Amino acid sequence: MTRQMEAVEPHMCAQGMQATRRGAVRMLWGAGIVCAAFVAPRSFAQTALRLPQGPQILTRQLTRSLSDGNQIKVTRSWQVQFARANQNMSGQIAITGVQISSEVEAPPSLNQLAAIERQRPTDGMWPIMLTPSGLILAAGRPMRQQDIEDALDTGQRMMAARMGQQNAANMVGTFAAQLQRTGTSLLDRLPDDLFFPTIGPIRSARKIDLPGGEAGEFEVAYEAVAVAGKGWLDRAERRITTRLAGTEQCAKEHWSLRPL
Asked: What are phi and psi of 84, to 5 degrees?
């Protein structure tokens, strides 16, 4: 993967989140892992969620390691407000927001791309609608375990097709690039329970067979913590790690919600 290809991936997060009103999210992280879609809904009439009062600052930091050991980091903050939707929407919750800051840290060679990312608007992600139980109703295309499986299978088919055309090291590099692109795109999809965490720490990992008998691993991990006694987001982190042939690359995001 070229440095340019690596560097432009963080802007996919803004593009992906701009699609927040298209489709319901279903996070399927793997067999045996609880999915937010299966969390029993609360009765709005009996146990309405407490909402943060007044303006809040929502911050998202995306960090992605590059193949040369450098990193690119994109940090955005929004001023957001939680409110009950009107009654004919069955107690849904609306979150409105406006971006108030955007920072990009990147190697000097990527300054031009960093400037483009810094100016990228995110107005299209608002409003975000939640169910009465606090799960996101519309936040882009669902994240499925099958997305991970498809990416790994595609990479392995690529390696098999290029046997004899590339040496093992080059094929591993090609596969790693494919997995890194997939990992960043998975972060485009907001977790169902981002604003009102209900899922405990989860981890899904798959072993990868590499040329020459070597092994690797593709891991997705997620943990969200609610404000004690209140229930809404304190902090959350997702991490996607690729371990191949003694190397490790990581794409991760960190969310936080604080009173203005």
From this structure: -75, 135
Boundaries of every domain in the chain: 3-259
Q: Residue 143 corresponds to which tokens in the numbers above? A: 């994240």
- For β-strands 233-244 and 71-84, DSSP reports them as unpaired
Phi first, then psi: what are they for 92, rounded to 5°? -65, 160
Q: Which residues contact 55 (CB under 8 A, 6 or more apart)?
A: 79, 80, 81, 259, 260
Query: Position of tokens 């992600």?
Result: 125
Give dist(CA 55, CA 58) in Å, integer: 10
Q: Name the strand (E) or helix (H) holding 62.
A: strand 56-65
The pair of three-digit structure tokens given for residue 48, joined into one six-digit string: 């309405």
Could you tell me the pTM of the whole model?
A: 0.73
Mean pLDDT by 10 residues, the chain (260 residues): 43 39 29 31 58 97 85 96 78 93 93 89 90 79 54 59 55 63 72 90 83 77 95 96 81 95
Is 73 in contact with 61 (CB distance < 8 Å)? yes
DSSP class of residue 196 equals S
CA distance 107 to 88: 50
**For 44, how many CA atoms within 13 A lie in the half-sphere containing its CB?**
17
Token pair for residue 127? 């409003």
